[in-house]
Design a protein that fits this description.
277 residues, D-Maltodextrin-Binding Protein, domain 2, 3 domains, 12 strands
């Protein structure tokens, strides 16, 4: 009886050991299968994924004339939505817009929340984190004021004083660039272009600072205020940002940009919103 019991216990332990080995094998196999699928998906570069899924994700910021979301339709409009729809529509790819902000756009690219962000100024600091297309256009750093005070701010030296109160969009490369050469000015940083304008209209600041297209559009819409481009003129490039390893996408975007520049479509889109080149 003792021998039979020992043999049964031995068989039971052997069975449990075999079940454990089988279970371990199944888990390992599933892990390998999962890894294989993951690697296979990751093997596709951004451009291949975009062309196979027929969808490109574009980071969008409330910053007209580059982007604006129509509250009635929910559709995005502006220079970048028009341009990306033209470019990617030519290869049968749908554009999906993902809301973001200038200050977090680079992180959004790195974390794969979107594939591109337009109206994104290439700077030496940003270039350490993300890749950039060629230049879409360039824009001069400018100011707008509603009072006579702005008429005396014809040089950046005149602006660079604590008595000049400036509102600008936090995280925008124009803001960061201007803060570097206007360290003595009094700054108010806000989340959006609309909030920046409100600061000026309420009298809390003397001027607002941004790129020339944004401020020219404000003047066109409001029909009040005065735009000044202080000297010496300081300008920034307007680019598309993307992940640093998106070399194929970068090359394709550059080709598409050049094609539509030569065709006149880039100028037509620019003129649609600004009426200038």
């Amino acid at each position: 009886m003792g021998f039979a019991r020992n043999r049964n216990e031995g068989n039971y332990r052997m069975q449990r050991r075999m079940e454990g080995l089988v279970w371990y094998g199944l888990v390992t196999a599933l892990a390998i299968i999962g890894l294989t699928h993951t690697v296979s998906a990751q093997d596709k570069n951004d451009l291949e994924r975009i062309t196979s899924t027929k969808v490109v994700r574009v980071g969008a910021i409330e910053a007209f004339p580059y982007y604006r979301k129509d509250l009635a339709s929910g559709e995005w409009e502006g220079i970048i939505p028009d341009l990306t729809r033209l470019m990617f529509g030519s290869i049968g790819v749908k554009v999906e817009f993902v809301p973001t902000e200038w200050g977090t756009a680079a992180a959004g690219l790195q974390s794969d929340k979107f594939d591109l962000v337009g109206g994104f100024n290439a700077t030496p600091q940003r270039a350490l984190a993300v890749g950039f297309s060629g230049i879409v256009a360039d824009s001069k750093i400018s100011i707008v004021g509603l009072t006579d005070k702005v008429k005396g701010l014809t040089t950046w030296d005149a602006v660079n004083t604590p008595t000049v109160k400036i509102a600008a969009v936090d995280g925008a490369s124009t803001t960061r660039a201007a803060q570097a050469f206007l360290p003595k000015a009094t700054w108010t940083l806000v989340k959006s272009t609309d909030a920046m304008v409100l600061e000026m209209e309420s009298g809390r600041v003397d001027v607002i600072l941004s790129n020339e297209p944004t401020l020219a559009l404000f003047l066109k819409a409001k029909k009040k205020g005065e735009l000044v481009i202080p000297t010496p003129v300081r300008a920034q490039p307007i680019n598309f940002g993307m992940r640093k390893n998106s070399k194929e996408l970068q090359e394709w975007v550059n080709i598409a940009l050049e094609y539509y520049k030569i065709s006149g479509d880039v100028t037509a889109i620019w003129n649609k919103y600004l009426g200038t080149n």
